[in-house]
């Protein structure tokens, strides 16, 4: 694969994975609109590994606190009672919120993997869920933080995350939308969404890795390393900028981008009978 293609795909994956604009839609659209061949499973796995490392490094202190909290709960110090703490509660909420997407993802991948990849579906999902994000962001009060969340809230966000299996919805976008509907402040909504992405990316990467292994074409090529490194860099920058932005502003710029993108896609789809990419 040419270096230019690798840079573009890594940038698209790294930037869009954590922004509320749908990475899956962009990864489907870029090869189609650019006239490229499918990038293949090796590059897919590589860019997912890059984004996974980025979110782990950015939130390493939170992840470390959850891991040590779990260890303390499992093996309390002598003379002390077992104590869960907020870190263990957050870890358990992430597990609970992941389960619906795992079950739905398995079903879709097994029985309906090709039904939701049409450009028209991506366009309408891009527009529809942009409007929902705008309404949730503007109409909901900002009165809660992650510490105020309970398991019911985690389940609600997890169920909403299932909608991200529709390309154009955006996993980040729909989970942030759900969190805003619950009154969680913007930066914490983004934080929970990104922490929730870790098991999701691990699951998606493991599935693609297994498919790659079964294909018998496991090759750690230079292109794969470059793709992973670039997606890591782009993702780390995107996360930092998004978190800084949401501490002082709203989701409106992302809504506007989605509406423009969805409108352009609908124009392309309907502008002429028989038009194909």
Account of the 3D structure:
The model has no long low-confidence stretch (mean pLDDT 85). The two termini are 21 Å apart. This protein has one domain (3-270). It is built from eleven helices and no strands. With 277 residues, the chain is mainly alpha-helical. The longest helix has 30 residues, at 186-215. Helix 3 (41-58) packs antiparallel against helix 9.
In summary, what is this structure?
73% of the residues lie in helices and 0% in strands.
- The pLDDT mean sits at 85
Work out the radius of gyration: 19 Å
Distance between the termini: 21 Å
Strand proportion: under 5%
Helical/strand content category: mainly alpha
Q: Provide a count of the helices.
A: 11
Could you give the count of β-strands? 0
Shape: globular
Largest sheet entry: none
- Overall number of domains: 1
Low-confidence stretches: none
**Element pattern in H and E:** HHHHHHHHHHH
Helix content: over 70%
List the helices and strands and how they pair.
Blueprint: H1 3-16, H2 23-34, H3 41-58, H4 60-74, H5 85-111, H6 119-139, H7 151-161, H8 171-181, H9 186-215, H10 222-246, H11 252-270
Helix pairs in contact: 1-2, 1-3, 1-10, 3-9, 3-10, 4-5, 5-7, 5-9, 6-8, 6-11, 7-8, 8-9, 9-10
């Amino acid at each position: 694969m040419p270096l230019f293609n690798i840079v573009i795909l890594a940038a698209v994956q790294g930037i869009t994975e954590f922004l509320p604009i749908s990475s899956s839609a962009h990864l489907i659209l870029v090869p189609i609109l650019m006239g490229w061949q499918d990038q293949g499973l090796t590059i897919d796995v590589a860019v997912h590994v890059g984004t996974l490392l980025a979110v782990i490094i950015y939130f390493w202190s939170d992840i470390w606190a959850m891991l040590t909290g779990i260890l303390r709960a499992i093996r309390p110090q002598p003379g002390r009672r077992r104590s869960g703490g907020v870190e263990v509660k957050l870890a358990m909420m992430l597990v609970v919120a992941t389960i619906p997407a795992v079950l739905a993802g398995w079903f879709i991948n097994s029985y309906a993997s090709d039904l939701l990849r049409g450009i028209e579906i991506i366009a309408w999902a891009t527009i529809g869920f942009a409007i929902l994000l705008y309404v949730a962001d503007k109409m909901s009060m900002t009165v809660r933080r992650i510490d105020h969340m309970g398991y019911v809230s985690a389940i609600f966000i997890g169920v909403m995350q299932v909608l991200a299996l529709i390309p154009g919805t955006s996993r980040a976008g729909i989970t942030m939308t759900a969190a805003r509907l619950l009154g969680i402040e913007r930066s914490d909504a983004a934080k929970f969404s990104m922490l929730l992405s870790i098991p999701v990316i691990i699951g998606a990467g493991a599935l693609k890795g297994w498919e790659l292994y079964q294909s018998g074409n496991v090759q750690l090529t230079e292109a794969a390393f470059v793709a992973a490194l670039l997606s890591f860099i782009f993702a780390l920058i995107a996360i930092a900028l998004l978190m800084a932005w949401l501490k002082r502003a709203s989701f409106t710029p992302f809504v506007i981008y989605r509406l423009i993108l969805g409108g352009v896609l609908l124009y392309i789809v309907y502008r002429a009978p028989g038009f194909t990419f």
